[in-house]
Amino acid sequence: MKKSYIMIGVILALVIILVITNPKQEEYVNWATQQITEDKGILLRLGADHLAKPVIHSATETTNFVLFSVYKTAMPHKEENITTIGFLNQFITTK
Prior knowledge:
This is DUF4359 domain-containing protein. It comes from Litchfieldia luteola. This protein has 3 helices and 4 strands; from the N terminus they run αααββββ. By secondary structure, it is of the alpha+beta class. A 4-stranded antiparallel sheet has the order 1-2-3-4. Helix 2 runs antiparallel to helix 3.
């Protein structure tokens, strides 16, 4: 009986942590902008806030599954979207 209470407590704690650390779209946009400008020059980094962020924000469709989110960003002139999963304040790009 004690083991089942412990297991329920662990699962509940994990669910709470996942819900709290599920990143918002704005966090994804900041992360994606940083990925684009990581190895670029200072001019691109300065322009990223004014140009890249609005473009990424408008081209991204977010699906929130409460425990994690899926971000699909349409790339211009490409048929496939970039799909990224966000959870635990981290992002993993799948395509």
